[in-house]
């Protein structure tokens, strides 16, 4: 493997993280393809996450608890803060003359073995919950399409979640690694545009005809405080993958410059569809906006059905992006290299990836009200990975080159996001306690 400057990075089967042997963490070379993709492809990987089917929920999960002022300012601030934090991580990719192709590799290089393991644990939990959420979203989209034609309650949400999980497994078996998505990223963009445009047009149509809407924040005084904190966690969740080094690993040299281009694309053109559907959905329905906007809209049945099917298919593609670090770990751990269509490799992917997604699907069907648990996951993993760790890693790595004012700025970020992480965790635990009284396992929501 080479750095973006062309200098060699240790080419043996493994290398030590950091120069001090006391940190001794062995980092295996990856079995997946790296350093081949353009910044434009990486940008589409990032925007696929932003404009996934999750975008259909932000009117209800972000705008309703925050209303116009808080929602608009919150989204703009979250965009700027997320771009800044991700740019910090991107700039550390070549730290110490080595390419750090995994988040845990970078943390281990800077801090040592314990941080390597902790970062992998946090990232695994974060991505597992995101993947589980995508399967729930895919199942909900399928059910929404089904009830447009037959609202007979014969097919329940857990059944659709099982179908969604099976389709996700088929896709995972056929696409060996992140770089292999290529044309599927274009397909994902088209699918996203279909359900976003459908939601926008139908929401505008409903909003023009609707009587004055109520934009006040619902709930008791105490409830408003906790839902506001939860909405803040959803804001940062919307923009952050928790796997930026893994995406950057696919980018060809110069890796830092190209990744920054991808990030600028993500946080300019990439966020516009999300902004549009979030604001228009809230404008059209006020505080009665649901957590899945296509359940609010009125219009031709075929349009809503097509939009829901597109949301289902896009969720399958988006899940593959967030599952790729786990796939890379498993393929590297068991030495799965060579042609993706070798019988041995196909068998491995069918067994291992299929088993991983079977667990995801079981959790999805068991707890289809997973949003509360995802808020908790965001609090204990997304905040630390994307904001706390990013700022502190940059502070440690660049400490000799930073002024006192710059150091103070990064410490301020660490402290503020540490506080927000604790507050969001408390809010999520409260939501779980409240909702556990109303929902049951394998619920048909």
Averaged pLDDT: 87
* Rg, Å, rounded: 22 Å
Helix content: 55-70%
Shape: globular
Strands side by side in the biggest sheet: 1-2
Q: Distance between termini?
A: 49 Å
CATH architecture: Orthogonal Bundle
- What is the tally of beta strands? 2
What is the total domain count?
Answer: 1
Percentage of β-strand residues: under 5%
Question: Which structural category do the helix and sheet elements fall into?
Answer: mainly alpha
Q: Could you state the order of secondary-structure elements as H and E?
A: EEHHHHHHHHHHHHHH
Count of helix runs: 14
The CATH class turns out to be Mainly Alpha
CATH topology: Hydantoin permease
Relevant CATH superfamily:
Hydantoin permease
Low-confidence stretches: 1-17
Family: Belongs to the amino acid/polyamine transporter 2 family. Amino acid/auxin permease (AAAP) (TC 2.A.18.1) subfamily.
GO molecular function: symporter activity
Subcellular location: Endomembrane system
Main location: membrane
Can you describe this structure?
This protein is mainly alpha-helical and 445 residues long. The protein has one domain: Hydantoin permease (Orthogonal Bundle). It contains 14 helices and two strands, in the order E-E-H-H-H-H-H-H-H-H-H-H-H-H-H-H. It has a two-stranded antiparallel ribbon. The N and C termini lie far apart (49 Å).
